[in-house]
Predict the 3D structure of the following.
Amino acid sequence: MDDTKTTIAIMAGGKSSRMGQDKSFVRFEGQPLIERTRSRVADLGDELILITNKPDEYAHLGLPMFRDVYPDCGPLGGIYTAVHHASHPHTLIVACDMPWLNPDLLRYMLTLRATADVIIPRWDKYPEPLHAIYSKACLPPILHKLQVQQLKITGFLGQVQVRFVAREEIERFDGDGRSFTNINTPDDLHSQQKRAD
């Protein structure tokens, strides 16, 4: 494996129950969220993959797609799947429902990838695990959590080296932290579209 190369993985799982339709295809500023996400990360790494259990619905994107290795294990299972299938030592994982992904912030995070097993932003007190970089060293501790059905998404961080990206670092690229905004409901969609106007 080439240590200088990075995989980018878009997570398109989730049940979208609060949205009432698949969030990936909800339109934001004229394009489906999944396509907006792809355009924001497309040139950041050496490989771009999609984690989805509904590959037929995403075939038009022309991306390599992988189903969950361990089904029904939520986002932690998706992270495992992405890192497991990644061709490169480090995987930048982003959720498909984050319309304000900031390529400059993500590039900065990628410059830190060799300093720890996980590079993860922390805006307030909570980390942002679906806007983070994971090394292959994360696979054994995540696998253990999946096998014992401890599915808290950050539950394995105590077993690996973690580099938190602090608010002061994030603010150099994203002054109000909107990179971490998710679109979960129609109300979220409406309020974020108003921010875009």
DSSP finds seven helices and nine strands in the chain. The beta strands are 6-11, 27-28, 31-32, 47-51, 65-66, 90-95, 118-121, 131-135, 162-165. The two ends are 44 Å apart (CA to CA). Helices lie at 33-41, 55-58, 74-85, 103-111, 139-147, 167-170, 186-196.
